[in-house]
Design a protein that fits this description.
Pfam families: SusD_RagB. The protein is mostly helical. The chain contains 21 helices and ten strands. Helix 5 packs parallel to helix 8, helix 15 crosses helix 16 and helix 15 packs antiparallel against helix 18. The radius of gyration is 24 Å and the shape is globular.
Length: 533
Amino acid sequence: MKKLLIIIFIAGTSLTSCVELLDKTDPTATSFVEFFNDEEDLRRVVYSSYLDVFTNPGVHQTLFYMQEGKSDNAYSRVDGHHHQRIANGNINSTTQAFLYYYELQMKHLGRLNTFVANADIPYVEDESVRTKYKSILEALRVWHYFRLTFRWGDVPFHLEPADLVDARQPITPKDEILNQLFPLAEDIAARLPADEYTSDKYMFNRYSFKAMTMRFALYNERYELAARLAKEIMDSNKYELYPDYGDLFQYEGASTNNEVIVHFDRQSHGNRATNSFRDLGPHYRTGNGQSYVVPLKSLVDAYWTLQGRPIANCPLHTMEEYELNPNLNRDPRYEQSIMGQGDDFYGEPIDIYNSNNPMYFENQRASKSGYWFKKYVSEADAFRSGGNFDFGLLRYAEVLLTYAEAKIMMNDIDDLALESINLVRERAGLDMTVADVTGPEYANFSQEDWIQLIRNERRVEFAGEGLRYDDIIRWEIADEVLNQPALGHTRMVDGEVVSLKIEDRSFQPHNYRWPFHENSLRVEPGLEQNPGY
């Protein structure tokens, strides 16, 4: 009886926010389908399916840029946001984060199964509209399963509304799920309109869903598929790199570029205020900046030189010189993405060692690392309660670097792969007389050399955009990079190079898959705990 009540509760909660969103007031209505009457109802359930999981600007646990705090790129200072504990390894099967994320995904999969199963009910004048919205709902369901399998591996898998019998079934192996998802994703993409929508552009179209499928093909080592999808997106000629990398993450270019493919725009969250300044920015002369997630020294050191060389292998300066002066001869993406000690903010120099300054590194709302992300942090938002940013969840630069990485991993590096890397580097402002990867410095590169280059290129191109944790998991380097202390700004003290230390971190081999929370194991008898927990 207890399990039956739990199933009923989950089913009920999965429909609550949809019913509220539809705002129907018929006192005689007794079921979901009685609220689900017309084209606008269909559009609204699609909208709510984005807002509740992917585009709510007020939920720190799911905000894309907050995900950096799970990785070696950044430190998240609030434990309740769930990123800090995953990064430092203080986790087990009772850690609340895993219950939160798993229940969130499963609740919305239940909703999506209900929406898809009933998508033929609402009245529409044009059946192509129904096809579009139903396909978007199916695409969102696939996206959820991509994320679930990437985190937990083998999970419950249902493409129909589940009943009590279904809820008791064993989990489905990850590879079996993916073998169904990837062909299904391509079928869904073919049914979606090819062009970006004039309104609701955050909703999947053919190429934005291809791009999301491409991402997870790469994540799951399906390199031929990832390269093919990337090439199809390139050949569509619908997207291009925005010419100014820094402005792409400021108001100047955030909503006027043709680079963003998957949108997180104001329309996707009902024009609510965005809070990226509050979340990422410094506690300045107002109480606005909270420094919730801040860059680490390991990310700062990952920015190679202006010539495209690792700072440890540059003949122009020593490693110590680069550590003490991050702005020295650096990839321009560093100054466009990060700010710290000695840089200017709102016309004033940042001094993290001055205890009278609100940006003093030991203050609660200051950066413990002495660095802040500059992406999505506009000085225009410093003295107002919220902003109006349009964010991108997937950019054309990722398509280019995905093609290159997939070809590198297949050891089939063609001219287009090299050109793709060059396009990203050239836009960033590197000195292409040296950084051109078709040049003599790269003539004798081994496959391992190319792997290290493309991995670092992804790291600095997408720093602050929430991709790093997924990358270190899929590359299986988390047990290397997350077993290092989280360090911050580096300076010379009494003749010694000293870095601010924030915390020790730990990552065990079994942490590559997340645990099912003990509550989930009790409620779902078909679940099996992942090894090591």
